[in-house]
Amino acid sequence: MKVALISPGKDDYYAKRLKSALKLPPLTLSTIAALIKPGIEVALVDEHVEPINYDDPYDLVGITVMTSVAPRAYKIADEFRARGSKVILGGPHPSALPQEAIKHCDAVVIGEAEGAWQRLIDDFKKGDLKQFYSNEHLPSLENLPEPRRDLYKKGAYYLENTIQISRGCPFGCSFCSVSNFFGNTYRHRPVGDVVREISHMNGKLIAFMDDNIIGDPKHSKELFKALIPYGKKWVGQSSFNIVEDKELLGLAQKSGCVGLFIGLESISEASMKEIGKPQNKIKKFKEGLKILHDHGIMVMGAFIFGFDSDDRDVFKRTLDFALDSKLDLAQFSVLTPLPGTKLYEKLSLENRIIDKDWSKYDFGNAVFRPAQMTAEELEKGNGWAWRQFYSHGSILKRVFGMKYELHRYLLYFVPILTLNLSFRKALNFEAKMSKLSLGSLN
Ligand code: SF4
Prior knowledge:
Layout: E1 2-7, H1 14-17, H2 27-33, E2 41-46, E3 60-64, H3 70-82, E4 86-90, H4 92-96, H5 98-101, E5 107-109, H6 116-125, E6 132-133, E7 162-163, E8 166-168, H7 178-182, E9 186-188, H8 191-199, E10 205-208, H9 217-227, E11 233-238, H10 246-254, E12 257-265, H11 269-275, H12 285-294, E13 298-305, H13 314-324, E14 329-334, H14 342-349, H15 375-389, H16 392-400, H17 406-433
Parallel strand pairs: 1-2, 1-3, 3-4, 4-5, 5-6, 7-10, 10-11, 11-12, 12-13, 13-14
Antiparallel strand pairs: 8-9
The structure holds iron/sulfur cluster.
Iron/sulfur cluster (SF4) binds near residues 176 and 263.
Cofactor: [4Fe-4S] cluster
Protein name: Fe-S oxidoreductase
GO molecular function, one term: 4 iron, 4 sulfur cluster binding
């Protein structure tokens, strides 16, 4: 029996063109691959790094689907079904819209794979595949098998050491699909399991792929303490309130934290209220970012444009803040109502969703009618913020500006410059490829 697990790209030739981005391996797929019993041949095909060979004779094809690649995933699914393979769709999009997904596949996995996948494979072997698989209870995260990292295409990724230690998030921001997919809880793996997995990793740098590495601060403290003897360096995603817990932040630093991705989202109190993200205290942003820098942690701040309280000046105000607060990297997104989120429900009820082409749900296109500007202005403003932040002038100013903080300058000059230039390169690629409204970077 042969199984293929596929992560869709944007089109057939995406892998050929996508040379510039900081590519990370598809951890979801290697995690699912580890659930498949020995004796079944498994191939992992990541369309971001290699094209799909439809002539490979797979019995079962599993495709993980985020909303923006749903049309592509459906095309791949249709192709394989036409060749006689049974196709399974899973991930956030089919979990939110299973009735849409089932039109393109033989079975949909709703929610997390553990348990459901094993049942599905048994049913397939018996010739008794059901249309929908889900778990009655959220699966335990104890004793999870290690992801099949051996299946990654060799040399294709910036960093193979990615790991997930938790699922879910204790918060419930209106635009975020995490709670819908993982349940409104935060669950974590036992510290011993995580440390064992990390001890098997070669290389010094690790990326934690969790939506919030400090979702349970007590657990995070235990984990960080346990990590210290391994001398690793790590990057991850955290909520901003990490700066309010000195012990937690100190342990993060000691355990090797060198970079955090933080969803700052907005610099407007009204927008923060709209999102339902009380833990983001805007008045403390600048001070908090300085605290992180003082702990030797680089910060990528993420912002979203298009909230009802955002007017046409929001782009300039936000960019000024990002530059002024010395963010090392920034990400700007157009507010996107992903199916399954509270935001999607709200905008649907208000009849403000103007585009249901899922390929445009990529955080660069405006698929709804914003309250205080046009959809076009929103897209353009977002593209403008990207262009300004990653212009050559801005990069040089920000990187050389670090010389006033000598310790940081000596430690991070090269990585921050390299990362900024890599982002710039990736953005230029995306601008050519999609409608991020980026134009060319100066
Ligand atoms: S804090 Fe982050 S992961 Fe948690 S719900 Fe909000 S956006 Fe999602």
